[in-house]
Write a structure and sequence with these properties.
single chain; about 290 residues; alpha+beta; Fumarylacetoacetate hydrolase, domain 2; 12-stranded mixed β-sheet; 5-stranded mixed β-sheet; 19 strands; about 15% helix
Amino acid sequence: MKFAHLRAEGQTTPRLAAVIADSALFLDEFMEQPPRDLQDLIERGPEGLAEVREVVDTAVMLEAELTPVAALRHSSAVLRPAQVIAIGANYAAHASELKLRSETAMTIFSLWPNSLTAHGATTTWPEDLTTQVDYEAELGVIVGRPARGVHVRDALDYVWGYTVVNDITARDIQFSEAQWSRCKSFDGFTPTGPVVVTADEIPDPQNLWLTTNLDGSIMQDASTNEMVRSVAEIISLLSRSATIPPGTLISTGSPGGAGYSRKPPVFLRDGSTVTVSVEGIGSLTTHCRVI
């Protein structure tokens, strides 16, 4: 199944919807006690998802009236996540182009929740703070149940679903500070979406194609099979030191092709439109404004 947080034009509160082809089925129109967002649905466990599946299947069978997604506005595909964890230098090509090491300990940092934003949203940043804003196409992984001391062979059983993440980065700040959270956590620097796809729809997260299209040019074009550490290995390693709570979003790293390493460098600028895509999930578009 696919889920999204959507709202009609003029509405401020997003509503959780099942996305069926190009249409949305709002759960609060078909359930007495609908989950208020994706986090609520995840916390209801397998029984909650099974209930939603039954409701959606019945509505489709009865040919219930749905709302075209094109007539709606997106919010972030994940809202109220327990935490947002990012993995750096997880593709050898990207690590090399940024002159980082990927073969030693895994690089782990947090993204601040204020950075989450939606498909189709406009991300802004002040020119006097950064002039080197870059894109990073990433596979987002959403954990579905508490993960502690998980073996690699069992790790994918803890995945609830997947989404697309653009890990936007202020490179000039990134390479002037010892940590990476601030340079990647400006308001709107972590677009997610357009949907979250349940894990059963992605049989192998290491066999997905990622692309980045910046103003009509393909900048990144690679497979998740190029990850230094797989999704299962990431979950297993993180779970060794601390419990990963349900709803945690893990952004798993970006392939080569970043704008910073190009000659000359290519950065997001005022008026840029960048679309990052992950096979089997969808395409996530962000508009850019410099203020």
